[in-house]
Amino acid sequence: MSKVKVAFICVHNSCRSQMAEALGKHLASDTFESYSAGTELRPQINQDAVRIIKDLHNIDMNETQKSKLLNDIPEVDVVITMGCNVACPSLPSRYREDWGLEDPSGKTDEEFIKTAKLIEEKVIDLRERLSNNEILI
């Protein structure tokens, strides 16, 4: 059986969803495949997010990821929205939840670290719920 495919989405696919994709690949690749996307592209991933994830987990998102649109990723089983303060992007899936995370863009390193650690906790929780069949796909 193939792994569950999880998409982390937000409008710009430059910060929270990118951190979630990186942490999903790092912490849960045994359980699910991680993708991120948005409805608009940014020329590059938020460099504060890149720096914080590199500092916390030694992952260089500039090397492994780029900003993607919803139609740039495969069909997915699970959609996780990051907590858009505008109309959240929609993507067909078998399960969907919103993580309600504030966008740290333009804020302090402490806010980026707080957001990264929340995403880490939520990725681990998602991995556990999928592994324990608490989310039926």
TrEMBL record:
Q: Which keywords fit this entry according to its UniProt record?
A: Arsenical resistance
InterPro entries associated with the record: Ptyr_pPase (IPR023485), Ptyr_pPase_sf (IPR036196)
Q: Which residue intervals define the domain Phosphotyrosine protein phosphatase I in the entry?
A: 4-129
Tell me which Pfam families the record gives: LMWPc
- Gene3D superfamilies xrefs: 3.40.50.2300
Stored SMART domains: LMWPc
Record keywords: Hydrolase included?
no
Cytoplasm as a keyword of this entry, yes or no, is no
One biological process term in Gene Ontology = response to arsenic-containing substance
Record PANTHER family: ARSENATE REDUCTASE
Q: What is this protein called?
A: Arsenate reductase ArsC
